[in-house]
Specification:
ABC transporter involved in vitamin B12 uptake, BtuC, mainly alpha, single chain, globular
Length: about 325
């Protein structure tokens, strides 16, 4: 399949999944009910389930997955390791810790929580790069291992916050940490961050194509490595922060989607980045739909579904890379 055809296919699949998610749930809805909720002004009864619950949640799920996939694609270029991802490198953990502190202090606006998440993500990435830096250089393997250790540290910090949190907030915090889209903040804010991130990433796509082949080649071609590293660093942190504020800490999306797209032969970042955007949205949207229906009327955290997919695939690819 040609790159443009592949992206169009993913876009159509995304739209189909969004529409499908409106019908599926603890209360199955008819075509007429969904139609009236979307296209009629006098919405009431069951139609409110679509307009006020399912549609905003579906859009939030798509935006969250797209943000994580974009961040994962950027991080994989930055560390030149296909196993890199916001969750594995501890960036999601840093952002989640900052958001929980904000919740503990009584903050609730999307702007303030996103700001805290952005700061937490920046601190997490800064710690990973500083601690992995030895004798003037770092290796992708050292970065990955350092990220795993930092992620464990953020896990301990999160446990401490949960321990001192009021019991009335504890259940909601735990569910949010495992990936919860029930209380997503402004969907328009998430899509704004998504579009800004995609535009900025696409502006860097030509340099990313060179950087993925090594710093020496990039420097030879006149690319300012320090400046490019900082741009990727900040952009990946912002994308991760926006995703964490929407749905908590959802793992493996940023690892799975860009890696599978590369395995399909699409390595040009001018194609990979928009394809990853749709692919990440599709994955989280499908996972959220499954989480709402598997044991309906109860709901599972989205992070459980993505972990069930991501952990076996991560172990397989890790073993595959080790054999090579």
């Amino acid at each position: 399949m040609r790159p443009l055809s592949f992206i169009i296919f993913l876009a159509i699949l995304s739209l189909c999944l969004i529409i499908t998610s409106l019908f599926i749930g603890s209360v199955p809805l008819s075509l007429q009910t969904v139609w009236s909720s979307l296209f009629e002004s006098n919405v009431k009864g069951s139609s409110l389930i679509v307009s006020e619950l399912r549609l905003p949640r579906a859009l939030a799920a798509f935006a969250t997955g797209a943000l994580l996939a974009q961040a994962g694609a950027l991080m994989q270029v930055l560390v030149r390791n296909p196993l890199a991802d916001p969750y594995i490198l501890g960036v999601s953990g840093g952002a989640a810790t900052a958001v929980l502190i904000g919740m503990l202090l009584g903050l609730s606006s999307a702007f303030s929580l996103t700001g805290l998440a952005f700061i937490g993500a920046l601190i997490a990435m800064f710690l990973v790069f500083v601690l992995a830096h030895q004798k003037g250089s770092w290796t992708p393997t050292r970065l990955l291992l350092t990220g795993v250790v930092i992620a464990a540290g953020w896990g301990a910090a999160i446990s401490l916050i949960l321990t001192i949190s009021p019991s009335s907030n504890l259940h909601g915090m735990l569910f949010w940490l495992m990936g919860d889209l029930s209380y997503s903040y402004s969907v328009s804010f998430a899509f704004t961050a998504l579009m800004i991130g995609l535009v900025l990433s696409m502006l860097l796509s030509s340099q990313l194509n060179v950087l993925i082949r090594g710093d020496k080649l990039a420097a030879t071609l006149g690319i300012n490595l320090k400046q490019l590293h900082i741009k990727i660093y900040i952009l990946a942190s912002l994308l991760t922060a926006a995703a964490v504020v929407q749905a908590g800490s959802i793992g493996f999306v940023g690892f799975i989607v860009p890696h599978l797209i590369r395995l399909a032969g699409l390595t040009d970042h001018r194609v990979l980045l928009p394809a990853a955007t749709f692919g990440g949205g599709i994955l989280v949207l499908a996972a959220d739909t499954a989480a709402r229906t598997i044991i309906a009327p109860q709901q599972l955290p989205v992070g459980i579904i993505t972990a069930l997919i991501g952990i076996p695939l991560f172990l397989y690819l890790l073993q595959r890379d080790a054999k090579q």
